[in-house]
Amino acid sequence: MHKLILISGGTASGKTTLVNELKKIYKDKISVLSMDNYYKSNDLMTLEQRKNINYDHPDSIDFSMVKRDVKALLNGMDIKSPKYDFRIHSRLNDDELVKASNIIVLEGIFALYDEELRELSSLNIFVDADSDIRFIRRLNRDVKERARTIDSVVVQYLKTVKPMHNLYVEKTKEYADIIINTTNNSIDNMNILIDKINELK
Which CATH number goes with the domain that contains 115? Predict the structure, then answer.
C-alpha cells in the first residue's frame, strides 16, 4: 500500500532538511516530489517578465500536474518529474525519474494548500521556524545557490514572500497532524514523526 505524506511550511523553514533525514531512515522505501519543480512553465515570456511573476502565490504552481503525478505514484506507477531552474525562472528540457515507493512525500510551501491533495494524504506535516531565521536562511541560500543579489532577495521577500506566507502558507498549519520546529537548527518531534510514519505501514 502506498501512502502520501505532505510536508509544508514557510520558505527556508527546514522542509528539505527534514526530507533528507527521512531519506536516511527509510532509504528506497520513500519517494520524494518537490513542488518547487512544479512551477508553471512560462517559456513564452522573457526572462525579465518571468522575474516579475509572484512565485509565492498558489497560482504559480501547476497543481493539475502535481496531482496527476501524486496519483500515479499512489497507484504504483513511476513518473517523470519536471525540473525547475530558479536561475532562469523556467523548467529545464529535462526530467527526473521518481519511482513509486511505499511512502510518497510531497514537500513545498503549498503542500497543504490544496484540498484534494489533503484528502489523498495519510499524514500532514508543517515545518515551522522563526520568521527572522527563515529570512536569513533564504538570503544565504538564494545568494549562494540561485545567483541572486542581496538586494533582489530582500525586495522579493518584502514584496511577495512575507505577505504571501501570511496570507496563504501560515494558515495551512491548521491542517497539520504534526508541527516540526527547526528554529534552533534541530528537528523537534522527530521521534514522534517516525512513530507516526511507521504506523502508516
Answer: 3.40.50.300
pLDDT confidence tier of residue 14, bands split at 50, 70 and 90: very high
- pLDDT of 123 reads 97
- Whether 63 is in a domain gets the answer yes
> Which three cell numbers, joined as nine digits, stand for 84?
525547475
- 3 state SS for 88-115: CCEEEEEEEEECCCCEEEEECCCCCCCH
Per-residue pLDDT tens over the stretch 131-186:
999 999 999 999 998 888 999 999 999 999 999 999 999 999 999 999 999 988 77
Residue with cell 531519506: 23
Task: Specify the number of domains making up the chain.
Answer: 1
pLDDT, tens digit (0-9, with 9 covering 90-100), for 81-95: 999 988 888 888 889
Q: Which long-range contacts (CB under 8 A, 24 or more apart) does 166-169 make?
A: 168/56, 168/57, 168/58, 168/110, 168/113, 169/8, 169/9, 169/10, 169/109, 169/110, 169/113
Contact 130, 13 (CB under 8 A): no
44 belongs to a structural domain: yes
